[in-house]
Amino acid sequence: MLAKLFAELNSMPELPPLTTPTKRKRVSPKKQVLQKRAERRNPNRTARPPEHFWVKRPETRSAPRRRFSKTQLHKLLLVDGSVLPGQQLFGVRRCRGQRVPRPVDEITQTQLNNVALINKDKILNKHYGSTCHQCRQKTLDTKTVC
């Protein structure tokens, strides 16, 4: 029976060979990105290592510093005795004085001339000149002293 089957198989016209799917090599996503990336212009040149790359430092674990508010610090120093009860520990904050406009009678002609001399080169036109960074006014050149 087996011989009969072999004889039939040999007498059959030739069949095309079966194509079996070939296994593709799996490429990791990292390698795919590396393959897609353009080749370096100068592959012999390597990047400089970061500063202090192989420097070993001794590990020191210090206790976390506690931050005190001014009132807590003042109370601690009162208990310690290094500050007297009426004594101020910190300086008093002073705010900057407000600018008071001067009366017209105090402004002299020389001061007006100085202001006019400084401002005569400024152009208040949107189409000509360049913006001065400090005063936000239009000026002829970028390197003006405002």
UniProtKB/TrEMBL annotation:
InterPro entries: CDCA7/CDA7L. Residues 9-67 are annotated as: Disordered. GO terms for biological process: regulation of DNA-templated transcription. Residues 36-62 have a biased composition (Basic and acidic residues). GO terms for cellular component: nucleus. This is Uncharacterized protein.
